[in-house]
Design goal:
Chain lengths: 114, 117
């Protein structure tokens, strides 16, 4: 069966520091991959999605970036964190290209910026 | 543009009573609709989906949802609520945006369900 892993579970970083969050999926090939941010336990904001290695679509202009160096690995990065980057970051994957299949989520990383 | 609305921030239900969490949508074309549940400090868990076929869709944990095309609604229901059903519920619709984002979902703002003993 397929599984998705995100780490770390929690992270406290000072303003201006770099960031790297990693997400890996097991048990499937060529998944669609997504990064979301959830603020205050409510709505989800899609940050990036990828349909293949090296293919990244950015949804919201910001100081974050994403990379997909391997088929089942998705990385969220920043060179210099802002206070506004605090939040709950969720990685997700889905199969297929027609949007028929649901997205499956990891357990997230809670990021606090001091 | 596609959109989904969850008109209630919170729904309160007594344990054992039926529950309904409301969702309405606006899409161009056929809607692909999904319900998810989120427990504290966890990711979203998929409950059920409507793609085509029967208007009543059954999902995980005894939940079901009714697709109503004329009312553009996809309400989540359960005949008998449990305290353990207390969580945050999200409705989502597939994005048919001009960028061809067939793999993207548009999520509602979420509804917090509180089931009281």
């Amino acid at each position: 069966s397929q599984t998705i892993h995100q780490w770390p579970a929690t992270l406290v970083q000072p303003v201006g520091s770099p960031l790297s969050l990693e997400c890996t999926v097991e048990g499937t090939s060529n998944p669609n991959l997504y990064w979301y941010r959830q603020a205050a336990g409510r709505g989800l904001q899609l940050l990036f999605y990828s349909v293949g290695i090296g293919q990244i679509s950015s949804e919201v202009p910001q100081n974050l970036s994403a990379s997909r160096p391997q088929d089942r690995q998705f990385i969220l990065s920043s060179k210099k964190l802002l206070l506004s980057d605090s939040g709950f970051y969720l990685c997700a994957w889905s199969e297929g290209q027609g949007g028929l299949e649901p997205q499956h989520f990891g357990d997230g990383t809670r990021l606090s910026i001091l | 543009a596609q959109s989904v609305a969850q008109p209630e921030d919170q729904v309160n239900v007594a344990e054992g009573n039926p529950l309904t969490v409301k969702c309405t949508y606006s899409v161009s074309g056929n809607p692909y609709l999904f319900w998810y549940v989120q427990y504290p400090n966890r990711g979203l868990q998929f409950l059920l989906k409507y793609i085509t076929g029967d208007n009543l869709v059954k999902g995980s944990y005894g939940f079901e949802a009714e697709f109503n095309k004329s009312q553009t609604s996809f309400h989540l229901k359960k005949p008998s609520a449990l305290v353990s059903d207390s969580a945050l519920y999200f409705c989502a619709v597939r994005d048919f945006g001009p960028s061809g984002g067939y793999n993207k979902l548009i999520f509602g703002a979420g509804t917090r369900l509180a089931v009281h003993p």
